[in-house]
Amino acid sequence: MILKDIWLDIKAVQERDPAARSAFEVLFLYQGIHALIWHRFAHWFYCHKMFFIARLISQIARFFTLIEIHPGARMGHGILIDHGSGVVIGETAVVGDNCTIYQGVTLGGVGTKKGKRHPTLGNNVMVGAGAKILGAFEVGDNCSIAANAVLLKPLEDNVTAVGIPARPVKKDGVSLPKKREAMTLEEYEEMKRQMEQMTRELKELKEMAERLAKEKEARESISE
Ligand SMILES: CC(C)(COP(=O)(O)OP(=O)(O)OC[C@H]1O[C@@H](n2cnc3c(N)ncnc32)[C@H](O)[C@@H]1OP(=O)(O)O)[C@@H](O)C(=O)NCCC(=O)NCCS
Q1: Once rounded to an integer, what is the mean pLDDT over residues 60-77?
Q2: Residues in domain Serine acetyltransferase N-terminal (predicted)?
Q3: Which of 36, 53, 55, 205 is packed most tightly, with the most Cβ within 10 A?
C-alpha cells in the first residue's frame, strides 16, 4: 500500500511538473517526494500509536527536506509538493488526492485547543507559494488558493481565492463581481467640499428669492 502511494506521488510529479524528466529522477532528486515517502512511514507508526518513532521520522525528514509534515496528517494520493522548502502541514490536516502544494505553504491551526484544528483540503486543490490556510475548515474540490494568500474561511468547490484575508475571485472559472471598495479619505474630502459649496449656493439662492419677493411686494404696493 505504501509502495503504491509512493508510485502515485511520483506519477503526480511527472504529470504536473513540466521540469520532471523521468520517474528515476523524480524518486531520487525531488525532496517533495522524499518528504511524502518519509511521511507515509511516519503516519503508519502514528496510526499504531508509536508516536515517538513517528515524530522522530518526521523530524529527520524535515532536516533533509525542509518540509514538515506532522505524522498525524492524512495525505491523499498523487500529491505534488513542488520545491517544498518551508512547507508546514499540521497534525489534524487532511490533504485530498491530486493536490499541489508549493513552497512556503502552511496548513496550520489557530489557537492552542486540542482536537481538529487544521484545514481539510478536497481533491485537486492547488495551494500557491507562501499561502497560509489557518483553521479547522474545509476547502472544496478543485479550489485554487493564490500565492501568498491567507485563507481563514471555508471555500465551496471550484473557487479561486486570493489576498489577505483570502476572498473568492472566481467560481467555476468565471470572475465574480467586485465589491465596491470603501471610500478613500480624498473621496470623502471631495464629497464634503461639494456639499459645502451646494449649501452655500442654496443659501445664496434663498436670499436672492427672498429679496426678489420683497422687491415685487414693494412694486405692487407703490402701483396701488
Ligand atoms: C490564484 C491563481 C491560481 C489565479 O489564477 P487565474 O485563475 O489565472 O486568475 P487570474 O490571473 O485571472 O486572477 C484573478 C484575479 O486574482 C488576482 N490575483 C491572482 N493571483 C493573485 C495573488 N497571488 N495575490 C493577489 N491577487 C492575485 C488577479 O490580479 C486578478 O484580479 P483582477 O480580477 O482584479 O485583475 C494564480 O494567480 C496563483 O497565484 N497561482 C499560484 C502559482 C504559484 O504559487 N506558483 C509557484 C511556482 S514556483
Answers
A1: 97
A2: 3-36
A3: 36
